[in-house]
Write a structure and sequence with these properties.
single chain; Beta-galactosidase, Chain A, domain 5; globular; mainly beta; 9-stranded antiparallel sheet; binds alpha-L-fucopyranose; 6-stranded antiparallel sheet; 341 residues
Length: 341
Amino acid sequence: MEFIETILGTLDGKEVKAYNLKSAGGAELTCMEYGCIITKINLPDRYGNTENIVLGFDTLEEYLNHSPYFGCVVGRSAGRIKNAAFEIEGVTYKLSKNDGENNLHGGPNGFHQVIWDSAVEKTDSEVKIIFSYLSPNGEEGFPGNLDVSVIYAFNDQNELLITYKAVSDQKTIVNLTNHSYFNLSGNLKRTILEHELTLPSDRFLELDDALLPTGRMIPVEGTVFDFQKGRRISEGIESGDPQTIMVGGGFDHPFLLNQKRPICLFDHESGRKLEIETEEPAVVFYSGNMLPDDFSIRGVQSQKHLGLCLETQKPPGMMDALFLEKNQVYLSKTKYRFALV
Ligand code: FUC
């Protein structure tokens, strides 16, 4: 494994470092201290063309101007919290509102726009970037000083292991994920509509029109939400299923992961395959329904369905699942394997 460290730019008087990691397996991953954003993943296709498979920019400025959470770590709490408030032992904590009346992805000043500290560890076959951040008590309304680290370990087998760790000095809630938008076609040549997705999930959470879980878990069987045996994403979108229409034409739903096999995303044309293994009980599958079209991404016009997110996490909205006790260690791992078929 090789890596190169650069300074991408300066923000609020602080230099922002970027890291470029090169595997012997022919893949390349670039990430930076701002938001722990994965800015690029280069991967060969079955014909040997090495191209980028995530949505991202080359400059810090573009991330500041427009980023629908491209490639970042979201926290303290991924997804939506109803009415931007929750209760711990009779005390109500009010969070910042940034999605109507609700809190989305930790609030406007969430982890996605923090400049994290970073350190590197390297062996012959792996490079680890260790990002850390101390989120102060009360930040965006969340209780407890939260000491967070996120580790990206990339190896010669083209595997990325993301480890999330956090400890708080007060009972709080935590739900962390990575918000990379994947598009396996390479350099955004096509939308993700003909990608085939396999989800080891037999139930998903119904959403209301504010995209909040209603509390109902719906069996996928007989619906376009059944990705258990693999399904092209376009099928679901063309189906006219009311849940897909309500979220803006596609998917934006938490799926409960209840089978011991990986999530798999496959692009038939390029032969590129992504497998995700996680310790988390759910994944939010977001098919990029709300991607704006008023800017370009490395020369390609942004558009709806240009990328999709597979956000492994605790089921959003189920507040009881999100509590972290004082001094308890939050530890969660998700592995991404980039391969060819
Ligand atoms: C995903 C979705 C949300 C939102 C955000 C940018 O996490 O669940 O609806 O659009 O990304």
